[in-house]
UniProtKB/TrEMBL annotation:
InterPro entries: AMP-binding_CS (IPR020845), AMP-dep_synth/lig_dom (IPR000873), ANL_N_sf (IPR042099). This is AMP-dependent synthetase/ligase domain-containing protein. The chain crosses the membrane at residues 25-46. The keyword Transmembrane helix applies. One of its GO terms (molecular function) is long-chain fatty acid-CoA ligase activity. It comes from the Eukaryota. SUPFAM superfamilies: Acetyl-CoA synthetase-like. Pathway: Phytoalexin biosynthesis; 3,4',5-trihydroxystilbene biosynthesis; 3,4',5-trihydroxystilbene from trans-4-coumarate: step 1/2. Keywords: Membrane, Phenylpropanoid metabolism, Transmembrane, Transmembrane helix. The keyword Membrane applies. One of its GO terms (cellular component) is membrane. Residues 126-541 form the AMP-dependent synthetase/ligase domain. GO terms for biological process: phenylpropanoid metabolic process.
Length: 720
């Protein structure tokens, strides 16, 4: 994720070309139908929104606060069904139940080529075929073989294995195989830097590393710093390079380990609920990453709870997997699919759509080939889908733009609950004329989307609801809660909220007097979000001090995690995240400024691809570093008659800075920001911030400390 050429932008070039089907009706007829039919239908039907109680206040232990539980269940959920208490048990039982149903799918590579960009760089283009599938039964056999193979590497429950790879089917097979021998898995982002990689492997004393063949070279460069590593197992690929001079380790291919286990089977040594399944290293925003210890019970509880939220999930569903499995959001999502017996088709952010960067022209992207019904996403990807659609609509102009705007407004009335009329008939009309081609970007079959990793902007959520025609379940959770905290429900059309607590946890708000957020606040209680229940993890590996700082156990033995996020509960029991303790800075004259809140507001400017606000307690104003989208800024420069040598030169020009500054001021005022919250000075950054650069996390959240360190001189100049 995070390619400088827009790896996950899911470009939508050309998708509106078939909207001209509307012209077959004749422009006058199309406009007449589009305008009058909805009005006639709306006069025939009427309805009122019903307020559904989604969360219920509850008395909880520990520090005093305002507690809430899910309205669906008085008792916290910890398993999807009796006996599925560990990841190993859950996986085995689901595989046997759905033995003949297709499970894991991977696309066959037909051809690879390279094209030269305008700057002389070469870009890889892939021609991918149809998905090739393995059944639950076949995958379970491979998992058992791999588990047996690991034992011949000297593994037992006291040893640890790390996975350092992009998302793929073998990642999940290695993951589940390790659990059949009660081996703890250490997960590491493929984009993690050398220092963090060394720290993660050494701290957990990993003896076997499983990785992509393309990442072997990276591991080899730090081999002298790895203290306990003995074995490397690599995933084969069609372009595997010669594996030579890579440490003094035993190096084996994944298929060799499977074959070894198949020929020398070993009985399973299964874990129990409290055993540690995963030590997940976060790409945290400060310092070296922390390893979060997740028990088998934690992961299973989250899956069991989410199963109750996604309507009708089952064997007919197809899930598109492309986010990092080393991130708890994707790991939890795929565990839910295993629980439900759904199919998982693997792709990547670089091959997601027909116009993605690595897809050869004329070749289907992953979504078109798979036609998923369920999909997870992070807000940054959905933002770019919205921006791409809006851009293409504007380019088309005329009848197409008018039809789109009418259709969008009509559907929006229903989505936001303003009108509950004859939606089925009207939906068919707008899908046929306007939205069908937009929906085909993601395969045309999406019925539910999961979104997490960062806050989702209200306008983006509405845009996806309208254009894709599917509800978005916006989730809130942390690695420390195994992603399980709150999840908005499919029939909840509100925006800006993350839903009620999942049935596996309680959520309470604890007053933060210093910040002025109190549980006694009216009309809604406010405070720090504290999560307690079955998904709350065991703490940080080898870091008791930090663990004790944010994890507490109450008098009943329930474990609570203090998130540092500030939230409020709506009357229906849904949580809204409104601030973050660490993001609040007091300016010179005593005003408090919430960096994250302001950044979210300013991100709606067309000139913002990424933005970091900076506030200094010794100054009365804030400043910002802004990464502008290349194409948008260059189009403005052309229309304004600005001459420039390259993009960096364009970013430095006074006229450009003034244009972006004016845009930020406007969106800031529209968002009702105070004057001191709008950056007084800005610096435009020509290069994107990517996970590979270490400036954003794998979920594309800002890493403030690395950003502040890298651009220290730029920030100082803004205050000069």
């Amino acid at each position: 994720m995070g390619d400088s050429e827009g790896s996950e932008q899911m470009e939508v070039g050309g998708f509106l070309s078939t909207l001209t089907v509307a012209k077959s009706y004749g422009p006058a007829v199309a406009i007449l139908v589009a305008v009058t039919l909805p009005l006639i239908l709306s006069s025939m039907f009427a309805g009122k929104k019903k307020v559904k109680q989604r969360g219920v206040p509850v008395e909880v232990g520990g520090e005093p606060g305002f507690g809430m539980r899910n309205a669906r269940s008085k008792k916290l959920v910890d398993v999807p069904w009796e006996g599925a208490t560990t990841m190993a048990a859950l996986f085995e039982q689901s595989c046997k139940k759905h033995s003949h149903h297709r499970f894991l799918g991977t696309r066959k590579l037909i051809d690879r080529s390279f094209v030269a960009g305008s700057d002389g760089r070469k870009f890889e283009k892939l021609h991918l075929g149809e998905y090739q599938w393995e059944t639950f039964g076949q995958v379970f056999e491979r998992v058992c073989n791999f588990a047996s193979g690991l034992i011949h590497f000297g593994h037992d429950p006291d040893t640890r294995i790390a996975i350092f790879s992009d998302t793929r089917a073998e990642w999940l097979i290695a993951f589940e195989g390790s659990f059949r021998q009660n081996i703890t898995i250490v997960t590491i982002y493929a984009s993690l830097g050398d220092d963090a990689l060394i720290h993660s492997l050494n701290e957990t004393k990993v003896t076997t590393l499983i990785c992509d063949s393309k990442l072997l070279k990276k591991v080899g460069t730090v081999s002298s710093s790895l203290e306990t590593l003995k074995n490397v197992i690599y995933f084969e690929s069609d372009n595997s390079e010669a594996l030579t001079n890579i440490g003094d380790w035993k190096i084996s291919s994944f298929s060799e380990v499977e074959k070894l286990g198949k020929n020398n089977p070993v009985n399973a040594r299964l874990p129990i609920k409290k055993d540690i399944a995963v030590i997940m290293y976060t790409s945290g925003s400060t310092g070296l990453p922390k390893g979060v210890m997740m028990s088998h019970g934690n992961v299973v509880a989250t899956a069991a709870a989410v199963m109750t939220v996604i309507p009708g999930i089952g064997t007919n569903d197809v899930y598109l997997a492309y986010l990092p499995l080393a991130h708890i959001f994707e790991l939890a999502a795929e565990t839910v699919m295993i629980t439900a017996g759904s199919s998982i088709g693997y792709g990547s952010a670089l091959t997601l759509t027909d116009t993605s960067n690595k897809i050869q022209k004329g070749t289907m992207g992953d979504a078109s080939a798979l036609k998923p019904t369920l999909m997870a996403s992070v807000p940054a990807i959905l933002d770019r889908v919205r921006d791409g659609v809006v851009k293409k609509v504007k380019e088309k102009g005329g009848l197409i733009t008018k039809l789109f705007n009418i259709a969008y407004k009509r559907r929006l009335l229903v989505v936001d609950g303003s009108w509950l009329g004859a939606w089925g008939l009207e939906k068919l009309l707008w899908d046929a004329i306007v939205f069908k081609k937009i929906q085909s970007i993601l395969g045309g079959q999406i019925r539910f989307m999961l979104c997490g990793g960062a806050p989702l902007a209200a306008d983006t959520q509405r845009f996806i609801n309208v254009c894709i025609g599917a509800p978005i379940g916006q989730g809130y959770g942390l690695t420390e809660t195994c992603a399980g905290a709150a999840f908005s429900e499919a029939d909840d059309n509100s925006v800006g909220r993350v839903g009620p607590p999942l049935p596996c946890v309680y959520i309470k708000l604890v007053s933060w007097d210093e910040g002025g957020y109190l549980t006694s606040d009216k009309p809604m209680p406010r405070g720090e979000v504290v999560i307690g229940g079955f998904s709350v993890t065991a703490g940080y590996f080898n870091n008791e001090e930090k663990t004790n700082e944010v994890f507490k156990v109450d008098e009943s033995g329930m474990r609570w995690f203090y998130t540092g996020d500030i939230g409020r509960f709506h009357p229906d029991g849904c949580l809204e995240i409104i601030d973050r303790k660490k993001d609040i800075v007091k300016l010179q004259h005593g005003e408090y400024i919430s960096l994250g809140k302001v950044e979210a507001a300013l991100a709606s400017s067309r000139y913002v691809e990424n933005i970091m606000l900076h506030a200094d307690p010794f100054h009365s104003y804030c400043v910002a570093l802004v990464v502008p989208p290349h194409q948008v800024l260059e189009q403005w420069a052309q229309s304004a008659g600005i001459n420039y040598k390259d993009f960096a030169d364009l970013c430095d020009k006074k006229e450009t800075i003034s244009e972006v500054q004016q845009s930020l001021t406007k969106v800031g005022k529209d968002a009702k920001l105070d004057k001191f919250e709008i950056p007084a000075k800005i610096k435009l950054m020509p290069d994107p911030w990517t996970p590979e650069s270490g400036l954003v996390t794998a979920a594309l959240k800002l890493k403030r400390e690395p950003l502040k360190a890298k651009f220290k001189d730029d920030l100082q100049m803004l205050y000069a």
